[in-house]
Amino acid sequence: MASSQQSAGSALDTNFGVDYVICYRLAAADKGKAEAQFEKLVRLLANVGLDLEVRDGDDCSVLIFTKIVSERHLLGEVYRSRIKDWLHGIRLTAPEKETEKLLASEPLTDSERLRIAYFLITSPESEGGAGITPQKGEWKNVESIFPLHNRSFNKEWLKRWSGKMYISAEDLTEIRDRFGEKFSLVYAIAIGLWSAAFIEYWKRQEVDLAVRWGVRGASSIQHLRPEFEYEKEVSDSVTGEKVKVFPARKRLVRQLLQVPFAILAISVLGGLIATCFAIEIFISEVYNGPLKWLLVFLPVGLLTAFIPILTTILTGIATRLTEYENYATIDSYEAAMTRKVFIFNFITCYLPLFLTAFIYIPFGSLIVPHLDIFGLTVESLMDDPKQLQMPKAGFQINSARLQKQVFYFAIQAQIVNLALEIIVPYIKRSGFNKVKKIKSSIASRRGGEIPDASMNDPPEEAAFLARVRDEARLEIYDVNVDLREMCMQFGYLVLFSVVWPLSGFTYLVNNWFELRSDAIKICSGMQRPVPWRGDSIGPWLDSLGFLAWLGSITTAALIYLFGGNGLGPEGTPWNIKVWGLLLTIFFSEHIYLLVRLGIRTILVSIESPGLQKERQERFSVRKLYLEEWLGEEEAARIAEGLVGKADRKMLGEEAGGPIGAKAEDKFWGRQQGLEETLKAGKGIISRSASREKKDQ
Amino acid sequence: MASSQQSAGSALDTNFGVDYVICYRLAAADKGKAEAQFEKLVRLLANVGLDLEVRDGDDCSVLIFTKIVSERHLLGEVYRSRIKDWLHGIRLTAPEKETEKLLASEPLTDSERLRIAYFLITSPESEGGAGITPQKGEWKNVESIFPLHNRSFNKEWLKRWSGKMYISAEDLTEIRDRFGEKFSLVYAIAIGLWSAAFIEYWKRQEVDLAVRWGVRGASSIQHLRPEFEYEKEVSDSVTGEKVKVFPARKRLVRQLLQVPFAILAISVLGGLIATCFAIEIFISEVYNGPLKWLLVFLPVGLLTAFIPILTTILTGIATRLTEYENYATIDSYEAAMTRKVFIFNFITCYLPLFLTAFIYIPFGSLIVPHLDIFGLTVESLMDDPKQLQMPKAGFQINSARLQKQVFYFAIQAQIVNLALEIIVPYIKRSGFNKVKKIKSSIASRRGGEIPDASMNDPPEEAAFLARVRDEARLEIYDVNVDLREMCMQFGYLVLFSVVWPLSGFTYLVNNWFELRSDAIKICSGMQRPVPWRGDSIGPWLDSLGFLAWLGSITTAALIYLFGGNGLGPEGTPWNIKVWGLLLTIFFSEHIYLLVRLGIRTILVSIESPGLQKERQERFSVRKLYLEEWLGEEEAARIAEGLVGKADRKMLGEEAGGPIGAKAEDKFWGRQQGLEETLKAGKGIISRSASREKKDQ
């Protein structure tokens, strides 16, 4: 407990109570300007009630350590934030007003504290924050704002996960035994069912988790984009707050630009991929001249060189377009951007497979002979024209190409990707450290002065500050990158895995590692992320739904084309019956949609625990108010639908009332009391019965 | 104002304050039993606080007039009902507790009063009602429970509507000019766009209207079906009420019986229709023997005879199946029944058209020669075998058949239907009155006694009671009948109207009348309906969506088959390219779905006034509570996100605090106050800058 005796080693486990570290970089050569801006930054931060310490960072940066200044102040902010949640309907019960009760009923989590601190630093001044926008506008020098990792938690987390094994070896053997290895109809049906069930299940699970985590509707509290340009400021008819408005119609018109953009992206990327595809086929299967060993790498080279360039250019256009669409909130901006990026990803990931499956294999023998536009150019360079063995009619297509490609995406690409995610950042970091050491040793040899920021560190903080400097150098985590990766993998699975059913298994294995490698990445490869609240995976859910739907079409087509029922176009596309293919697709797609509807219907009919909890809370809140107002007993009676019967009987006896002068009063006064009514009724019954007898 | 002078004529405009009339029929010959049951009924009604008067009905019935006994009692019920709404989230503000304010803030509408009275009469005793279930169980003798029409309102309503003309003649000419009369691609696109827009618009409009009418979520207050059989009674984890439970899984298994039922219905009805269709074609286009003039009516006769019988049988099975599925609430029961009935309706309405368009016309010349199984049987009866002119190969199909059928549904069927709806009930009623008069005159001649219920009427009530007896004889209005009619019409429009685009116009005309004839029907042809609350057209919306989707397929197919581009199979089905047809369908369907998605996206991005109102109310309610708890000023500050800056500055100056013994305290105490922090930071900046200079 005597923490003054903390060793440097255990200091790695403490964050010194730091909420956020702000990394201020001195990019501006002008020292005076940098100082002035720094002073402004520090004053703004102090102004919103943050305690500050500055330390020397590395590479010309100042590290500003912040924490919320006093418990009382923090509690005030917690209360404000919870009240805001309540006003927006994210929580149903108003938070306790008294300070002690406030935290006793719902303890403050790390996330909540960090979220509040982040808002204090980044919200606009009009909303009570310091208005610091890292890397943007006047705060270009603020490189990053990040919380420090909780080392002991991270260690525990990774340890727990690495010990868990969800899939036993038997399961995997069974999968193999059941689905075999190639073009299985059973597998196709299974994957269709699974994808439909997965989408519907996730939709439900998402809501359920959001309710359990108390973030349902969190997306309705929107964070204003600082770059948002408003046309006018009106007071919101709902909340009475002043709201910055940009007309929806105007935005709609701007959004229409997405159509030409999508066409551009598709034609540019698609054109490149198709061209390289054609070159590759020509060189590997037609061309037989000199330098073949080298030319084989040409299409790969072209793709490797141009895809990143084109993607960067297109992403730039997409960013500008999304900025032009001028979204008011961060969420809607990101959703719009995600939608655009999905188009590139779709083309770069799946187009090569589409080309192989639906162009090259069925129509290869028609198209390949026309590739001699390349053949002619090569011919003139060659000594012997016979080196170009262009098959005129009997060209044999390489039907293993599709399997090879699917195999590549299922195994090699996954391994490469995993390596890129873990190993490359590690190498980068250790390389950086080595470079730094070399630099400093050179400098010390040259000038004698060691230009190291850690020079002036107080010894008991040295280890801690070294760690903070390390974390400051890490990249910022973007959850969309991991979501995109999973979404694209889902796409390979539902679109093409029927070609090689074991690929489903390889993805399973990959994800076992992926889950853990992403955890490692978040814990040690990235700055600790700001704990944003989310209640949905947002636009990615639409992407998953679209891919699964498309999967029902491609899988049917692949089964029909290559199903081994004799219809497969092994170099003989003439035998494919187009109407058969279209009919297969038609049925597969509609059966898929029906199944999905059925699964949704079933899932809806079973109430999820999360929604039940929400309903429970809503009802109990209302009942509580009722009790406060009416007294418990009366409230219970109303809630249970019981009304004192005694009252009623008494009232019943009151019936009739005085005979008034009005016809209406006379009408109701004709039979005084219950007994007279009964007597009159029985009289009618007797008369009717006798009338009926006479009638017969 | 002196209402004692009300004439019999103006008595037609008063309802004597009657809430509901209960018609108790003496079907049981046993007078004693009828009396005992009647006594039980009256006592139960008096028990729940209703004032009662009985009068003689016609045809061996007793009319029991009910009204809620005292204003105080009514107000109690209003309060209970509004509290229940609030507990279930239908209304956001709790109702006023004080009696005067209760009605001053929201006046009691006719509907609310009638709804409350209806619940008092029909709710189970456990829920505080009298538990009367008309025509069911022990209350078989309770023929109906109905409110009386408000004559003056009805008159005003019909007058207002008949004066309104929404569509001008110019519009119609324009429609004709634009779409022509036959197989127009432009029309097909227009109808596809319109149907997609209509569905999405209605979905939004439905929510909007529900919010405006204050019934959003009304379907969440479910009314228990009296026939519901529960397996166990558990106390609801949410409301704490005792809830009767039937396991959802068990119901799901029972629901699976719908599949064989659907197959049965489709094969029985479909088989009948297909058979009659074949007979009709054979007789009208192949057969040329004796009695042709008579035999032509055979298929129509068969259909007219058997369709109602089969429909009745199937409806009986559907009812039993739905009862077996054992739904807990009236709403879910009706939705399940509606879904089943939709299957029959779909087959009986559209199958003849499907057969003509997609079987008879393209494959007629293949199939018709095989119809000679009938030909042979006829042949043996005939004198001259040549009378049966069976065309062997050159059979010419009657391609006008499809247009004729569409024309029939667009014009004749609509007129017949309109006539059935208005004129038949009118004739029925006046016929009934005549029969009654004749009967009574015979009886008076025979026995001298006039067996008329009106004999004993007090003179000032005579006119009123005569009116009530009339209304008691009317049928009960079922909104599903009208919804089904509109839904089926929508189906003709989206599925087949491309065959004869003017049919869209005839439906428009029909609906102009339909709207008004339905109003007349509700006002004078039916008992006044119980004012249920609804927040959706429920399962009919799904039906509309399904029909519109299917329409995108049939319309494409019709355009492709008969589009006049030379591909139309005028007796030459061999020329149709199946892959072309399938490809057309594929594109049409997917373009339709894309357009619908686009329209939905646009509609969602524009906030509807209803939803805005809801958001506004929710927010203002919460803000109100906040103000009550915190005082107005503080609440405004929290809501606007402003926190006193003065507090913060003060807090900022507090920063630092005493240097503690802990490393953490030491860390935060290193720089005392803002000025020291600034100084330290500037020091770092200077050193960094100089380091950088040396480095270069």
Automatic annotation (TrEMBL), chains A, B:
Topology versus the membrane: Multi-pass membrane protein
Keyword flag Transmembrane helix: yes
Keywords from the named record: Membrane, Transmembrane, Transmembrane helix
Domain Anoctamin transmembrane: 179-617
Gene Ontology cellular-component terms listed: cortical endoplasmic reticulum; membrane
TM region(s), chain numbering: 183-202, 259-283, 295-321, 342-363, 406-427, 490-509, 546-567, 579-599
Domain called Anoctamin alpha-beta plait: residue spans: 17-142
Stored Pfam families: Anoctamin, Anoctamin_N
Molecular function per GO: chloride channel activity
Presence of keyword Manganese: no
Protein localization: Membrane
Name of this protein: Uncharacterized protein
Origin species: Glutinoglossum americanum
The organism's taxonomic lineage, starting at the top: Eukaryota, Fungi, Dikarya, Ascomycota, Pezizomycotina
